């Protein structure tokens, strides 16, 4: 805790570990489905409507694109939480580097 980076890490340690484990579990759960995704999507009407067939792309490629967009949105949450936590500490005058 001798530097501002050390303080930021100490404040966010549990949150970063929790989000890291959560993102790993989310990735593993989707990764296990990707092998037989064609059969999985064919049985769900809503997924067929969300992913209309586009010539030149398989349903798996379309699903991965949609999945990456969703994962990118979800992965911004920990960064925003870290910045907002540090801003709140600054507003409460708890961060005084001198």
List the helices and strands and how they pair.
Layout (H helix, E strand, L loop, with lengths): L3 H30 L3 H6 L2 H6 L8 H33 L7
Describe it.
- 77% of the residues lie in helices and 0% in strands.
- With 98 residues, it is an all-alpha fold.
- The two termini are 13 Å apart.
Give a short overview.
Helices cover 77% and strands 0% of the residues. The chain is built from 4 helices and no strands. It has helices at residues 4-33, 37-42, 45-50, 59-91.
Q: What share of residues is helical?
A: over 70%
State the assembly state of the protein chains. single chain
Rg for CA atoms: 20 Å
Helices and strands, in N-to-C order? HHHH
Question: What best-fitting shape do the alpha-carbon axes yield?
Answer: elongated
Per DSSP E runs of 2 or more residues, the count of β-strands stands at: 0
Helices, by number, come to 4
Structural class: mainly alpha
Rounded mean pLDDT score: 82
**N-to-C terminal Cα separation, in Å?**
13 Å
């Amino acid at each position: 805790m001798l530097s501002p980076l050390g303080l930021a890490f100490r404040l966010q340690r549990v949150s970063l570990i929790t989000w890291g484990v959560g993102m790993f579990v989310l990735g593993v759960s989707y990764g296990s489905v990707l092998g037989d995704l064609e059969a999985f999507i064919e049985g769900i009407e809503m997924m067929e409507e969300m992913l209309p067939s586009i010539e030149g792309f398989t349903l798996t490629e379309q699903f991965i694109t949609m999945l990456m967009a969703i994962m990118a949105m979800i992965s911004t949450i920990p960064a925003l939480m870290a910045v907002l936590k540090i801003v709140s500490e600054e507003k409460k005058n708890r961060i005084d580097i001198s």
